[in-house]
Specification:
Blueprint: H1 2-6, H2 12-66, E1 75-79, E2 82-86, E3 89-92, E4 101-107, E5 130-136, E6 139-142, E7 154-157, E8 162-165, E9 169-171, E10 176-178, E11 200-213, E12 219-228, E13 236-237, E14 242-243, E15 253-255, E16 260-264, E17 266-275, E18 287-289, E19 323-325, E20 331-333, E21 335-345, E22 365-366, E23 369-370, E24 381-389
Parallel strand pairs: 1-8
Antiparallel strand pairs: 1-2, 3-4, 4-11, 5-6, 5-11, 7-8, 7-11, 9-10, 11-12, 12-15, 12-16, 13-14, 17-18, 17-21, 19-20, 21-24, 22-23
Length: 398
């Protein structure tokens, strides 16, 4: 009897109860662990999306902040057989169905650094501006021959308007520059506003920003270097296929070579342009438009008396004019700011809290790009927007 009392153990009922409690504890711990892993992954994706948006926005910010240096009142470009005065920043509107595109004339980062100290010198920072000492038969002779090389795209600037010079060839001995537009009349277009003695010459690039998809269907922001059109329009060779990104006959620029991927997973690019037709510099009075056409030309008459309430009707196929009349009856660039929005698409399908694929859809509306009713695809999106002032396009800021 005493031996039986000394025996210890668990009954079957106690064992079942303990096992049930253990299973519940394991299930809870597993659920917490799975949730933690999912939250960690979700956080990593959000950080990645934020980084991708920051990188894309940083590239665009660098270009637009430099754009217009030396040409606040416009840039003369010889394209399609004629001289055109255009804004150093312009873009086409993808309307409600597609991303926007933007073209930016960007000076070399060293443009305002120290050039050569004297005529005939070759010393100077690469890309630094040099002055025109004389002009003979349309060919400028520059003070410094050591700041750029053959083939560079150049701008001649009097700090109000500029002229774009392409296919440049430098004679280091004579100090003269020849270029494709030498017989185009740029030096007298329209009132000797460029390529004159004392004007600055410096290196520039024209960049074309757009969104496309690679062979695997992954979206991204791309940048292509461009050249002036010879009259036949052109096509853009994008990462996936050859797509006509510009009008067939009226393109101001065409892409020159394969584009470079700026940032992967950028699904949409939307740009709004702030126009100061009142000329008072008050952002509250800016007229915001969704595109400036493929080549927004300045109008000699500015708005021509068009009422502000009718500005939306000027968008048309040619784009809204980006100029206004100044106090002297001439034209100045009315573009003062741009609002850039990029949409980052997650690199992988998102999931709900239960682990099933989410029903995420494209963003319903970004600027005038509307995708209401789009089919769910399971990719989460993040929207990043920034507004940039364009001080280089304001003559008063010089």
């Amino acid at each position: 009897m005493n031996a039986r009392k000394r025996q210890s153990g668990m009954t079957l009922v106690e064992l079942l109860v303990a096992s049930a409690i253990l299973l519940v504890a394991v299930a809870l711990a597993s659920s917490l662990m799975i949730t933690g892993v999912r939250l960690t992954r979700d956080g990593e994706i959000r950080v990645q999306e934020s980084d991708e948006a920051r990188m894309a926005m940083g590239e665009l910010a660098k270009s637009v902040r430099l754009a217009g240096l030396g040409a606040p009142n416009g840039l003369y470009v010889h394209s399609n057989g004629k001289n055109q005065l255009v804004s150093p920043i312009f873009g086409t509107d993808g309307s409600a169905t597609a991303p926007d595109e933007m073209w930016v004339v960007v000076p070399d980062g060293n443009a305002m650094r120290e050039g050569c100290p004297s005529l005939g010198s070759t010393a100077g920072d690469p890309g630094a501006a040099t002055r025109i000492a004389s002009v003979k038969l349309g060919l400028p002779t520059v003070i410094c021959t050591g700041t750029f090389a053959d083939g560079d795209m150049l701008m001649s600037s009097n700090l109000r308007t500029g002229a774009l010079l392409t296919a440049s060839v430098l004679d280091a001995t004579l100090g003269t520059i020849s270029f494709a537009e030498v017989s185009s009349g740029l030096s007298t277009s329209p009132t000797k506003s460029s390529l004159q003695v004392g004007d600055l010459v410096f290196r520039v690039n024209v960049w074309h920003y757009f969104v496309d998809r690679d062979a695997n269907g992954v979206p991204g922001l791309y940048r292509a270097k461009v050249k002036t059109s010879t009259g036949g329009g052109g096509t853009v060779t994008n990462a996936k296929t050859a797509l006509a990104k510009q009008p067939a006959t009226a393109a101001l620029f065409v892409d020159d070579g394969a584009p470079t991927l700026v940032q992967q997973n950028i699904e949409d690019l939307q740009i709004a342009y702030g126009l100061d037709y009142a000329g008072n510099g008050d952002p509250a009075g800016f007229i915001w438009v969704d595109g400036l056409g493929s080549a927004p030309q300045f109008s000699a008459a500015g708005l021509g008396g068009t009422a502000l309430s009718n500005l939306s009707a000027l968008g048309g196929a040619g784009g809204l004019v980006s100029s206004r009349q100044d106090l002297l009856g001439g034209t100045t660039n009315a573009l003062r700011a741009i609002r850039v929005s990029v949409v980052v698409r997650g690199s992988g399908l998102s999931q709900t809290g239960s682990g099933t694929p989410s029903t995420a859809t494209p963003l319903a509306k970004v600027e005038n790009h509307v995708q209401t009713g789009a089919n769910p695809d399971g990719y989460r999106r993040m929207l990043a927007s920034r507004t940039f002032e364009l001080p280089n396009l304001s003559p008063g800021s010089l």
